[in-house]
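Lecture 7, part 2: worked example. A protein chain together with zinc ion.
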Amino acid sequence: MAEAVEREAMLRAIALAQSADIPDGPNPRVGCVLVDAEGRIVGEGVHRGAGTAHAEADALAQAGPAAQGATAVVTLEPCNHTGRTGPCSEALTAAGVARVVYAQADPHAVAAGGAERLRSAGIDVEGGLLAQESAALNEAWTHAVTTGRPFVTWKVAATLDGRVAASDGSSRWITGEAARAEVHLWRRRCDAIAVGTGTALADDPELTARDAQGALVGHQPLRVVVGLSDIPASARVLDASAPTLHLRTHDPAEVLATLAQREVRHLLLEGGPRLGSAFLAAGLVDEVVWYVAPMLLGAGSPAVADWGITTLSDGVRLRDVRVDQVGEDARISGRI
Ligand code: AOF
Ligand code: ZN
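Predicted complex, written out as structure tokens:
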């Protein structure tokens, strides 16, 4: 089949993967298109989250007998394992698909090996078409299944002089409405949100993802409180709006190991200064999203606690930096 047709189909599969609402839970976004020998699309599929059909199975169900002799174009290497659903390598073989073109190789050890399995069933298999574009659909997921720990985004909202609270402890609201609305989008995209016990006690945050009217949006991330102090049962973070985990440790690696066991792929760190610097010192922050409000305090809690840097050349510098305006605030983001 013409290379251009397959490329076109892969772009469509990527668009399908993007169109699905952020899948709740641990699974990647995946799209699949089945193309017949004449280059016509006979089935389209998308994965809608853990426990639902994989993209390939979804497309095969739509195509029915038309899958016989077709080419399956899929953004991720078909899986080879029985997890929450059966192996796609088998389903594609059973449906009589003649060729499989995938983009990203499956980095997830438990599911990998689909390409080999398909080849040994006599199917023509090619990997790597638009691999970067497809991997970009699932950056946090790819990181998590490759390294065995969640991707960590650290979000801060500070004043121009780098403070996250005034000296009387007041911290609402430093940034404006637009920046606060973005934070709720970040929460929706993540699987878990963490704060230290200090922040949980001082600010009594709810840590839920809400819309502009303050209503809870569908998927709620796991709320995680890190630290040894007790949290009173009346704390908002312990209310019924989402599940909460209190991890009685100060060790960031232990936090991530526990969350990895729960299949958390993307963690949002929301404060405070000690939790952030502990993750930073441990080398466990992957991305920083820093809102700077045009406000000056001159006193109050600094955004990052001292973690022992004494000379400029030891400072942590971000790369791939972006600077954007959000309402009256600035958002500076980058990788570590
Ligand atoms: C998906 N959707 O469309 C494809 C996936 O727990 P399971 O059984 O749903 O398997 C999840 C793994 O299967 C996932 O980590 C990935 O390696 C592979 N392929 N997963 O959720 C899909 N094709
Ligand atoms: Zn599968």
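Residues 93 and 118 are 7 Å apart (CA to CA). The radius of gyration is 23 Å. Keep this in mind for problem set question 3.
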